[in-house]
Amino acid sequence: MASVKKRIHFVGIGGIGMSALAKILAEDGYSVSGSDKEPSVITGKLQQTGVKIYYSHAAGNIPKETSTVVYSTCISRDNPELVEARRRKIKIVHRSEVLGWIFNKKKGIAVTGTHGKTTTTSLVSVMLENTGRDPTVMIGGEVKEFDGNAKLGKGDYAVAEADESDSSFLRLNPYYAVITNMEPEHLDHYKNMAEIARAFKSFIGNVKRSGVVFYNHDDVESGKVVKRSGARSRSFGFSSGSDIYPLGIKMDCFKTEFDCVYEGNNLGRVRLNIPGKHNVLNALACILVGLEMGIKFADIAKAICGFEGALRRFQLRCDVGGIMLVDDYAHHPTEIRAVIQACRNWKGRRVVAVFQPHRYTRTKLLANEFGKCFELADKIILTDIYAASEKPIKGVSIKMIYDKIKRSGKTDVSVIKKELLAGHVKKIAMPGDMILILGAGDIVKVADELQGNFESDSGVNSRAAEELEKRISGRVRFKEDLFKHTSIKIGGPAQIWAEPRDRRDLSKILAFARVKKLKVFVIGNGSNILAKDEGFNGIIISLSAPYFKKLKIKGLNFCVGAGHSLSHLVRTVCKLGLGGLESMVGIPGTVGGAIFMNAGGYSNPVYRNIGEFVTSIKAMDYGGVMHTLKRKDLEFGYRCSNITRYIILEADLRLNKTDRKVLISNCSHFLNIKRTKQALDLPSAGCAFKNPPGSQFTSGQMIDTLGLKGMRIGGAQISEKHANFIVNRGGATSKDVMTLVDLIQDKVKDNYGIDLELEIKVI
Questions:
Q1: Does domain 315-454 have CATH number 3.90.190.20?
Q2: Which one is catalytic: 81, 84, 97, 161?
């Protein structure tokens, strides 16, 4: 790379576009690091290629000798890593500049447009791969053929999505450009359709002189721009005026087939494993590119016939008990309409569309279109807007779309909180249903949960539990009730409960979860946790074996296992005259959980936080690799740390020599304070909300001032003793608790203008 040397750092490396570039550069021999807020499947795969990832945004994340820092549009200018890069005079480049460099080394094929980019890019990439062209590919979704979203090839071609949303595609100089369509979208960036058209015209002007622009003949706006540009072009579409078009389209479930007519000649039949007329267009674009490159039609048709789509593009999650669960990234009205239309390939199915809008600006600008695009759905379930990087817009909420849909004549439409979606959908689902999960935000977690729900009912997880039990020395149980293991005494069954005997067992469990694609959650003593009534569809890991509870004390230093009781540890060290932790006496968690959440107190300087005393940590990442994290690697904040990517196994702490009698007296003092001020008489998950930063009031004070103490829903009640505790008075459900949570958050927002953040972890 001319402007990017050997050490490169990506800010926001977990993004689908950023991760693809990072993988390509890492495979090409560059030293790559990056940061993101939390781990994901994508970041886990990057780590397996040797990429160093930090799960926080901090100036110290940028390694020494870094020559270039890469960012994406969603990263704010005041990000601490960008600030540090400017201070150190490190070159800062937008991700599109890195993509442009890759294109300059090869013949770049850039796919852009409002809809269909990912599927079209995937089809072109698979076509080139399966016809022996060994392309470099960077896709906006994960594709089975590449085991991810990127691949470094040795061939002449590089294929990538060109992002029009922020005009960054103007940094590219492709050899081939595919324009799927042009519609009013990303109007937070563009003023109007005319400005969008000008951007596309500039993009076309960047195509190399000997290259070609492929465009959708049926899309009026695309046609206008291409013709005005004067670029060499070829068209695809449904009409016979296109250079390539289909005849005899036949669709049945996932199968789609059609005859391909090119320049007036019927080349033959194309068979696809992806549904919907919109995918016929995507396939035609791919075929047209292949023909222009000189690939034989028969080879193209054979190369793409087995393609099953990218993840979250009409992805069949499961089909059990007569219920189909389909997951799709669609978040624009045109996309939603096309996906629901594809659902009609399954005749007689009731289509239940579950939708999470993406961004306040899109909701505001396209509310009318959202109201009309669900016309072919039988039942519509909406949830709150996913903000992405946007701040809320006054008056813009899910109610806008709800009202528009109702006015369109649809009657079976409802709004459900995201935390309750999976449970609600499972309750109303019937054999013969097609459950369609739609949206570009975190609604994918609902799809994950529903898949686990449906598969557990079919016995899939029962067989998995039996298989895991044979692989490890520790204990494994199927459908272990979580209310037994949480301090609030609420929660349905964990499909698999695993107690590893040692770290080797733990590594085996994590490997098993990756292969089986099961979610994993590590539980301590169950405080600060609300388990859902429907349970946890995955593996709950309990570090309760003696191996994880060891305690070795030497002078002022000691090493303690993550599964050791924090309260027991405090009492032990106080009896030995080791001070610092005494304010944490009575906290009902494990040492690992306490360090993970940096337990302690912030509202009073007398209270200390456990992170102050940690000198190092031994931890395992979710790939099963051991790490030793030194003090310089650790960051602790209010109820948080930068250890989210790791499972803590043991920690080294250093305390202060203090008079033993004073410490024991202090322990009694702090326990009395807790008994007096906190709700310890009934089961709870501890403080429900974090104290808002910068506010003169604590969460408890605001809730108390609003007169909410004692309010009860079902078996859940806002404690009459401490307003920031929600207690279980008997028979409470997670739905009861979450309904109270919603009520509190709404009241505080209305009266204080503050969004209270949950301290409780909902699993």
A1: yes
A2: 161
Residue ranges of alpha helices (H) inside 183-312 are 193-205, 220-229, 277-293, 297-304
The CATH classification number of 459-546 equals 3.30.43.10
The catalytic position among 118, 119, 120, 180 is 118
- 466 in catalytic set: no
pLDDT tens-digit series, residues 265-295:
999 999 999 998 999 999 999 999 999 999 9
pLDDT at 460 over 80: no
Could you tell me which CATH class the domain 549-674 is placed in? alpha beta
Distance CA 517, CA 317 (A): 11
Residue 402 near residue 413, CB atoms below 8 Å: yes
Contact 39, 55 (CB under 8 A): yes
132-178 pLDDT tens trace: 999 999 998 888 888 888 999 999 999 999 988 888 888 889 999 99
Q: Is 655 in contact with 615 (CB distance < 8 Å)?
A: no
pTM for the complete prediction? 0.66
pLDDT at 601: 57
Tens of pLDDT, residues 228-261: 888 999 999 999 999 999 999 999 889 999 999 9
Tokens coding 367: 């509310």
Q: What is the mean pLDDT of residues 468-492?
A: 91
Model pLDDT for residues 97-141, shown as the tens digit of each residue: 999 888 888 999 999 998 889 999 999 999 999 999 999 999 988
- 161 in active site: yes
Q: Is 430 exposed, middle or buried (0-12, 13-18, 19+ CB in 10 A)?
A: exposed
Q: Is 117 a catalytic residue?
A: yes
Amino acid residing at 203: F
Order of strands across the sheet with 712-713? 684-687, 725-728, 716-718, 712-713
| Class of CATH domain 679-762 | alpha beta
Q: Is domain 7-95 annotated with CATH 2.60.40.3080?
A: no
Which residues are CB-neighbours of 265 under 8 A, at least 6 positions away?
none
pLDDT tens-place string over residues 340-365: 999 988 988 999 999 999 999 999 98
- Residues recorded for the chain: 763
Single out the catalytic residue among 23, 107, 117, 735: 117
Using DSSP bridges, classify how beta strands 413-415 and 626-630 pair: parallel, antiparallel or unpaired.
Answer: unpaired
CATH number of 106-304, picked from 3.30.830.10, 3.40.1190.10, 2.40.50.140, 3.30.365.10: 3.40.1190.10
3-state secondary structure of 554: strand
Give the contacts of 267 (CB within 8 A, at least 6 positions apart): 259, 260, 261, 297
Residue with the two structure tokens 């994880």: 548
pLDDT of residue 1: 43
Looking up tokens 């009395």 gives 672
**Which run of H or of E encompasses 457?**
helix 444-457
